[in-house]
């Protein structure tokens, strides 16, 4: 199974964000072997305006499935209405998709009005029930916005996933989960969580400048990034990172 992941588009109606997201999608649509699905791990809109989601829906339209979850810059009612075309609602937006024999759980880790993340009781229950209902032998990937571990930069670390131990406990009970994928940090990063690979997708908008690279956290000169995740027959996840000029 071949997945692409993009994150943190921060579409704001401005030319820069539109151009970067459009370029990434042109690159993905032109691949000789289409991806089985594209994951978009949050901060799709910058101000959560309906017009930003309408633009996102236009830019992200693709001949392959596009799976998304909200980030801290998104707002559930506008995301549901203008991006998903559903009735607006305040509850978490959790979706499961079966892609090439693998369950991909796109989870809502947002706390309305805050930058930190949290998988609330409803979402944790949904993850548990969804994983438990899958047929034997079906592997699963879990994706959400805020990384559940320290990434060693004060900005994403201040807004990371709270109470990660609740998710770690769930993963202990569900060995079918092969990896955790997030966004939010605006830097392509690899770590581990609950004994699984944890991959943080790069941002389409600016890239996080690490403390050892300089003081200004937002590097706007770096090109947009993409992660390609390959899940092998042996359930090993291998990730390749790309930038799109
Ligand atoms: Fe972001
Ligand atoms: Fe974010």
Describe this structure in words.
- With 245 residues, the chain is α/β, with parallel strands linked by helices.
- The two termini are 26 Å apart.
- The model has no long low-confidence stretch (mean pLDDT 98).
- Strand 4 and strand 5 (102-106) form a beta hairpin.
- Helix 2 packs across helix 3.
- It has helices at 15-29, 50-60, 76-83, 121-133, 154-158, 164-173, and strands at 2-6, 37-41, 66-69, 95-99, 102-106, 140-143, 177-182, 189-193, 196-200, 207-208, 218-219, 225-231, 237-243.
- The structure holds fe (ii) ion (FE2) (2 copies).
- The site of one fe (ii) ion (FE2) has 6 residues, from loops.
Write a concise keyword list for the protein shown above:
245 residues; alpha/beta; six-stranded mixed beta sheet; Purple Acid Phosphatase, chain A, domain 2; globular; binds fe (ii) ion; 25% helix
Number of helices: 6
Please report the total strand number as a whole number: 13
Number of domains: 1
Strand order of the largest sheet: 4-5-6-7-9-8
CATH class assignment: Alpha Beta
What value does the Rg take, in angstroms? 17 Å
Give the H and E element order. EHEHEHEEHEHHEEEEEEE
Report mean pLDDT, rounded to a whole number. Answer: 98
Please tell me what the overall shape is.
globular
Structural class: alpha/beta
Major β-sheet annotation:
6 strands, mixed
CATH third-tier fold name: Purple Acid Phosphatase, chain A, domain 2
What amount of the residues lies in strands? 25-35%
What share of the residues lie within helices? 25-40%
The first-to-last residue Cα distance is 26 Å
* CATH level-four homologous superfamily name: Metallo-dependent phosphatases
- Uncertain stretches of 5 or more adjacent residues: none
User: Which CATH architecture is right?
Assistant: 4-Layer Sandwich
Give the bound compounds.
fe (ii) ion
């Amino acid at each position: 199974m071949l997945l692409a992941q993009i994150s943190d588009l921060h579409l704001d109606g401005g030319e820069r964000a539109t151009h970067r997201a459009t370029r990434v999608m042109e690159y993905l649509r032109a691949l000789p072997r289409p991806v089985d699905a594209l994951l978009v791990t949050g901060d799709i809109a910058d101000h959560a305006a309906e017009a930003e989601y309408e633009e996102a829906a236009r830019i992200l339209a693709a001949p392959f499935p596009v799976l998304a979850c909200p980030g801290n810059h998104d707002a559930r009612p506008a995301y549901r209405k203008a991006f998903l075309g559903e009735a607006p609602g305040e509850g978490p937006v959790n979706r499961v998709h079966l892609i090439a024999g693998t369950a991909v759980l796109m989870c809502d880790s947002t706390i309305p009005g805050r930058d930190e993340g949290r998988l609330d009781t409803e979402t944790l229950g949904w993850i548990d029930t969804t994983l438990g209902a899958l047929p034997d032998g079906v592997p699963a990937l879990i994706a959400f916005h805020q990384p559940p571990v320290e990434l060693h930069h004060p900005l994403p670390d201040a807004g990371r996933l709270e109470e990660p131990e609740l998710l770690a406990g769930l993963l202990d009970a569900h060995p079918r989960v092969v990896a955790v994928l997030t966004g939010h940090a605006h830097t392509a990063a690899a770590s581990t969580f609950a004994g699984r690979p944890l991959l943080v997708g790069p941002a389409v908008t600016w890239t996080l400048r690490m403390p050892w690279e300089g003081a200004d956290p937002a590097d706007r000169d770096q090109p947009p990034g993409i992660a390609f995740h390959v899940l092998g027959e042996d359930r090993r996840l291998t990730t390749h990172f790309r930038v799109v000029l």
